[in-house]
Amino acid sequence: MAMVVEAFTSDLCYLITQIKAKRLSVPPKYHDLVIELESKIVKIRDYVARTSGSKDTVVVALVREMKGALYDASDALSLLLLKIEDTEDPVTTCWTTCFPNLDHLRKLKFRQEFSRLNSEMSLLLQRYTPSSSSGLDFQRGEDRVDHTTIPSNMDTSDMVPDHQMEQISETIINIMCNSANGDVNDDKVKIIAIVGPTGIGKTFLATLIKSKLQGQFWFTIWLNVTANFTRPDLLRAVISSCSPAHGGFSDMSCLEYKLEEAVHRARVLLVMDDVWSEKPWTDVLQGPLRVCGPGSWVIVTTRNENLAAMMKPTHIYRLHKLKPDVSWSLLKKQIKSNKKDEREEQEVDRLQVIGNMILEKCDGLPLAIKVLAAELQQNRTQDNWEHMLKNKKWLKEGLPEELNRSIYLSFNDLPLHLKQCFLYCSIFPEGQTITCDKVVQMWIAEGFIPSDGSSKLPEALGQEYYMELVARNLLEPIDGNFYECRCAMHTVFRSFAQYLVKDETLLLDEGENTSDSTQKFRRLSVSSKEVEYSDIQKHKSLRALYICVHGFKMLKQLPESIVNLQKLRFLDISDTEVKEVPKEFGRLNNLVTLKGFPANTDDTGKCTLEELEHLSKLMRLTVQGLQNISSSSSSTSARLCHKMHLTSLWLRCNTSEGNEIQSQEVFDNLCPSPSVEQLTITGYFGFRLPNWLMSPTIDNLRMLKLENLPSCKVLPYNLGQLPNLESLCVQHARCITRIGEELFVPSPLDDDTDEDERSILPSSINTIVLWPSPWRSPG
User: Fold this and answer.
1) pLDDT value, residue 758
2) What is the dihedral of CA 8, 451, 677, 704, to 10 degrees?
3) Torsion sign, CA atoms 85, 90, 93, 94
4) Under a CB-based contact definition with an 8 Å cutoff, are residues 500 and 399 in contact?
5) In the sheet that 523-526 helps form, which strands lie side by side, from edge to edge?
6) pLDDT in tens, 723-747
7) 656-674: b (≥16 Cβ within 10 Å) or e
8) Taking Cα atoms as reference points, which of 729, 730, 707, 721 lies closest to residue 764?
9) How far apart are CA 710 and CA 728, in angstroms?
10) What is the dihedral of CA 486, 488, 489, 490, to 10 degrees?
11) What is the mean pLDDT of residues 518-535?
12) Listed residue (255, 227, 224) closest to 239, CA to CA
């Protein structure tokens, strides 16, 4: 069920629109068959939507076959569009040269193929009758949540607040209490947001704060607002928390007046738990609550950081996963039946080693730990717990209902295009980094990010999708990562996604081999050395093959024919032994990401950097081997300053020794365009850094990383004046013995100010890493 049918059929219809727009190039018989296919695709979409969530095995089997037909239609339509473009652009005839095994596809009898697809879809639709699907409408219980105040007897005694949660709660309480003693004329209601993934403990933290502030507010109101809230119900819920008799009004103006009357000049604490939209606040409650007294607060808990920002909070706090010791404490507290039984406690302690291994499945998520504890409590023996460790029940049968319901809410709230992108991330093996540029290219290849002819590149749009998944806490940034472009998928979320994709994606982890199943898998992820290439060939319907197995031989040379792939957008050869690129490499002028480009000079004096001249669409570029460049004019030919889409640049020398003057000349002529936001320089041999680092042309720079600088003695004097610089990392620069002035900017203080106070650290810089650090700061 990896296919999100509504999104997939929308992409198919867009393909058909492109084909119809080329009507002059499409034979009439093809055109009629495509139109007929479009109508059947729409009917299948409607059927799948009506039966969504059905457990009926007949319906499930029929939906699976319909999805298979949609995949076949996608292949046929894509090939037809390619053939049309073949006739319009002679350059694309290189496809046969590049991929000889695709030669037969060029001779494919499209008319017979589309006739077959139309017949297949007709038969599938005939098996569906309206009466057979009656009663199959499916609505999950989690979509129907009342607007209620929190029960006064809510049990949170089994939760274990860790140091992080205790620290945040104390900080928030201090902020709230200090505001109560502050300016009595400051009657603006302030907001604090608590953000994190589902099940991380946001509700518990809000409950903890509420209980500690008991008696500090006239009214304490708790709301759990659904996505489909109604304004009258929301207002009545708040009024009921302040005054039991709200008069049963239904008119909005009356309800708003009644609420204003109830909270006028009163100090109010409103907790809006698990918020999915800013509108309950901005459109409904913000107006009436403006009459609250000084020191009134709103606590918002949400899974979406972008939503939190839209509510304009004064503070945002992000909860992180529990540490292993706290996870064990929570599990132990959950599975003990008698809290004071020392014998039982010793029995549980003997299982701590295997218990910690099982807890890795929960990955520090409190809700997952509580759910898992219910299963472990029933069988508290070493053998049973070891069986639980090896069991892949969550992948085969789905997550337990309570955990599944909570994660499904986050999944169901995603727009269609993000649903399929999220599910696709489960193809990466557990624990592997999901880099933005890599997964975006995979999404583009699958057609998840259509090229709609707008000025925005698909890669830029894909990066927005990626960052939205991060903001919704469905992908988690790796610690220390800047820009959140290197993330991982939480173990529990991965299990949830893998269960949904199990009919279409085969995941082979270490020790596993290909399945003997005759099932048509569309995607195969291999992280097992036991898999043979002949086994992979058995899967004839694959659309994506992802291999992540260590120990493969390094690629040493790119084929000459790669220059014919003029639609290529992503190329990563950074972990290979490629030392040079084929002639006319610059013909790949659609490249957006190029990693590991080898800088070299051949026997004739020709420099590979010249091939970069025409790659004007590059957004991310890594150049390595710059110690091999002997002439400053060669580096100029790369024309990096003209690449206006370039946002990420890594310039790298690969040896530990080099010529200082030559290095300075080469790097001085590699000035990037003003669009660059992330810059890394590695292995630079010059006594000083490139001149352009001291110029105003790089004002957009947000991250600067300098590493392995054996000869450099000083940093650019104007680093502190770069207006957007947020992160500075300097590593292994042994000749830099003093640092300080270059990071400071003049203070806007009077002339009488002490000289030591005339400079301040720029407010934009929030991360500075200096390692190792035998340096002296000024003064």
Assistant:
1) 43
2) 50
3) negative
4) no
5) 505-508, 523-526, 544-547
6) 888 888 888 877 776 665 555 555 4
7) eebeeebbbbbbbbbbbbe
8) 721
9) 18
10) -140
11) 73
12) 255
Residue 664 · residue 687 · CB < 8 Å: yes
Do residues 496 and 399 make contact, with C-beta atoms less than 8 angstroms apart? Answer: yes
Mean pLDDT, residues 616-632 taken together: 84
Residue given tokens 């992802």 in the structure block: 546
Short-list 85, 74, 81, 79, CA closest to 103: 79
CATH 3.80.10.10 fits 560-771, yes or no: yes
Report the alpha-carbon distance of residue 113 to residue 589 in Å, rounded.
34
d(CA 418, CA 443): 10
pLDDT at 108 exceeding the cut of 50:
no
Give the range among 7-16, 687-696, 728-737, 769-778 with minimum mean pLDDT. Answer: 769-778
CATH H-level, domain 163-318: superfamily: P-loop containing nucleotide triphosphate hydrolases (3.40.50.300)
Backbone φ and ψ of 757, nearest 5°:
-100, 5
Among 266, 263, 272, which Cα is nearest to 295's? Answer: 266
Three-state secondary structure call for residue 486: strand
Which residue's structure tokens are 């990563």? 572
pLDDT of residue 739: 61
* Dihedral-angle region of residue 453 (phi above 0 means left; psi in -120 to 50 means alpha; beta otherwise): left
- Least confident residue range of 220-229, 459-468, 473-482: 473-482
The predicted model gives 3-29 an average pLDDT of 79
Q: What angle do CA 219, 224, 230 make, to 5 degrees?
A: 100
Q: DSSP secondary-structure letter at 687? A: S
Domain ranges of the chain: 5-138, 163-318, 324-391, 560-771
pLDDT in tens, 688-712: 888 888 777 788 888 888 888 888 8
- Identity of residue 166: E
pLDDT band, very low/low/confident/very high, at 285 (cuts 50, 70, 90): very high
Q: What is the pLDDT of residues 185-225, one digit of tens each?
A: 566 899 999 999 988 989 999 999 998 898 889 999 999 87
Is the link from the previous residue into 748 a cis peptide, with omega within 30 of 0?
A: no
Cα gap 426→501, rounded to integer Å: 8
Residue 658 near residue 625 (C-beta atoms within 8 A): no
Orientation angle between helical segments 5-21 and 57-88, nearest 10 degrees: 30
Which pTM does this prediction carry? Answer: 0.72
Judge contact between 613 and 587, C-beta under 8 A. Answer: no
